[in-house]
Amino acid sequence: MNPIIQIIIAIASSVSTAMLAYIAWLGYRHNKKVKLSSIYTALVQQANIVNSEIGQYGIGGPYTTLLNIPKNEYKEFGYYATIFFHHLRLLSIVFQNGINQKLMIMQDVDRYISWAKTVLKPWINSNAHLSKLLDKVISQKDLYGENFLEWIRKLMK
Description:
This protein is mainly α. The chain has one domain. It has six helices and no strands. The chain is elongated and about 90 Å long.
């Protein structure tokens, strides 16, 4: 066989192998992102279930202990805390997808920011327990990333 043809075949074979490896890598990366997405979805769903059940059953959750909520206020605090955490989760999704990853239209992000400042913030500030809860969540720096907590602190203060 002609040496030039052999070289062309070898190059074509190398390019084909490289392309197949690249396609396989893209598939792996996509599957990893899908898997991570489903893990985060499951975590959010479980957190919502836990928070909702604390409110529904009127039992003292972790924050009732941290904030020294009297037992006779557990049920009412549970209702408020449940809604509080649902709102916080909503804002964490806006932060992650709108601010960090820039996947959202900025006008939509701005609407959520405006809503947080003009609706959510006054609601939180109208309840001493919720104000303490917000302060505790921001200072704990455990469930939420520091960048998100700094954004919330600036938004709510």
